[in-house]
Amino acid sequence: MKKSHIFMQHDAIVDLVDGMTHLLRHQLDDRGITEPAMIGIHTGGAWIARELHDRLGCSDPLGLLDISFYRDDFTRIGVNPQVRPSQIEFDVEGRDIILVDDVIQSGRTIRAAMNEIFDFGRPASILLATLIERGGRQLPIQPDVVGLRVPLQPHEHIRLRGPEQLTLEITQRG
Amino acid sequence: MARLEHNNIQLDSEGRLRHFLTIEGLGRDLLTRILDTAESFAALPGRPVKKVPALRGRVITNLFFETSTRTRTTFELAAKRLSADVLNFNVSTSATAKGETLLDTLRNIEAMHSEMFIVRHSQSGAAHFIARHAAPGVSVINAGDGRHAHPTQAMLDMFTIRRHKGDFAPLRVAIVGDILHSRVARSQILALNTLGVTEVRVIGPRTLIPTEARALGVHIFHDLDEGLRDVDVVIMLRLQKERMDGALLPSEEEYFRLYGLTNERLENAKPDAIVMHPGPINRGVEMDSEVADGPRSVILRQVSYGIAVRMAVMSLCIQTHAEVPA
Q1: Which of A60, B56, B207, B264 lies 20 to 30 A from B41 at CA?
Q2: In this structure, are residues A6 and A167 in contact, taking their beta carbons and an 8 Å threshold?
Q3: What is the average per-residue pLDDT within A128-157?
């Protein structure tokens, strides 16, 4: 049996994105980065990235990454039925990249995303921003900017729904 | 997931593509899934690193009983772009010449932990035969069997059409030439009808259009100008010169006069019609160089799309191996 409930509605999520924008500006200042480029991970990460991209006024088009063919469990779970092409229309080489995802848990998605980014070129740096950080890390990867830390049980699953009205939904498995 | 009861050897118990042998018996959803997956790979040539790690450590074998350089090369490149290791067996020059049977060859290569066989054979049904005898966790992809089928060529043609025309529904497509001997044409007709185009026409001399063609749901034309009228897509087939001997055709010159595509004859088609050809072209036989190198020709794009489509088929098939212990 699966039980779901809405954890957070659109307006509250937008508030989190505003907070992330503020933290990102800080981080960029600290690092002396003036022209960051942004990449969002398909699907939820891309929705959050779109919001951040507008707020930070990045001049390059937003990059979109579908990491299906870079997953370490590809041959176990196969091709995602909603797979779509990755699109990065700026030159990654030497750029400071802000990588955006909706939820970080194991860290495997981020590892796959970084592998794919390096196939486009060698960036100067990558900064990681996630809307939600939850426990369950299996790799030594930590976000630099987080919208909200949510303590969840291993059997709980959090998911961002969108793209127009964003909601966060928690599902109990078991 | 529900176990499906079916007798289609191409699908696993969950209805997923395990072998890709023919378009026959595959639904629109599955063909669309292949095309959608190929979209992800079509963008790779624009990147500094043109490959993805999806099939790292997997072994894919080209098992070619009939010589073919370009088809084998595109399959090899597709496998390498998925990071698989590739074995090439040109069987006509290898062990079968020493008396080894087809099944012995198969078992030997399976023992090398190959999970996928790309098979080309001059006998219709050869890929099916190998698929029926393949061990669990092994997929077979048909790279052309006799006069029967060449499904990846058909799918790369469908991908090309979708890229240039978008929706299949309103399209009229003409296939011109030697339909009788063409495994490509058969697969194309099945795919076009499954994807729901408005009309499929075949155009060619009576001697080169099989009588059963009508049963595939096509309109038959023997006059090129008439057949090309208002079509959106023109697919030219290669005229296999070896067929000339069988008295099926008078001469290359005569064939070109009647069925060769020139810019003038292309005027009959829609102004934005595209021209396709599976290659290699016999210039001055199936079409004029002016057409082959002209603005409506998408022939060279077909070649690069072919790699993306073969990557899609390989990555979809290999996911059915998941439950099989290594």
Answers
A1: A60
A2: yes
A3: 96
B197 and B116 both lie in a single domain: no
Residue in chain B nearest A86 by alpha carbon: B40
Distance CA A75, CA B322 (A): 6
In the chain, the amino acid numbered B319 is Q
The tally of domains found in chain B comes to 2
- Beta strand residue intervals within B57-105, DSSP E: 59-64, 85-90
What 3 state SS string does B231-265 have? CCEEEECCCCHHHHHHCCCCCHHHHHHHHCECHHH
* Same domain, yes or no: B145 and B171: no
How close is the nearest chain B Cα to the Cα of A135, in Å? 27
User: Mean pLDDT for each consecutive 10-residue tract of chain B (326 residues)?
Assistant: 66 93 96 96 92 94 88 95 93 63 84 93 91 93 92 97 97 95 92 97 92 88 97 93 67 90 97 94 92 96 95 94 54
Q: Could you tell me the residue range of the domain that residue B35 belongs to?
A: 28-149+305-321
Cα–Cα distances in angstroms (integers) from residue A83 to residues A105, A138, B39, B55, in the given order: 21, 24, 9, 16
- A/B interface, count of CB pairs below 8 Å: 64
A133: which DSSP letter? E
Distances (CA, A) of B52 to A66, A112, B139, B272: 12, 11, 20, 35
Q: Residue B55's domain is classified under what CATH number?
A: 3.40.50.1370
Residue B320, min C-alpha distance to chain A (Å): 8
Domain shared by B162 and B280, yes or no: yes
> Contact A79/B37, CB-based, under 8 Å?
yes
Does any domain span residue A160?
yes
Query: Does residue B278 lie within any of the structural domains?
Result: yes
| Domain of residue A132, CATH code | 3.40.50.2020
| B271 and B311 within one domain | no
Would you state the structure tokens that stand for residue A86, as one six-digit string? Answer: 């990755």
A84 touches chain B (CB under 8 A): yes
Which domain covers residue A108, as residue numbers?
Answer: 3-27+35-64+93-172
pLDDT of A99 strictly over 90: yes
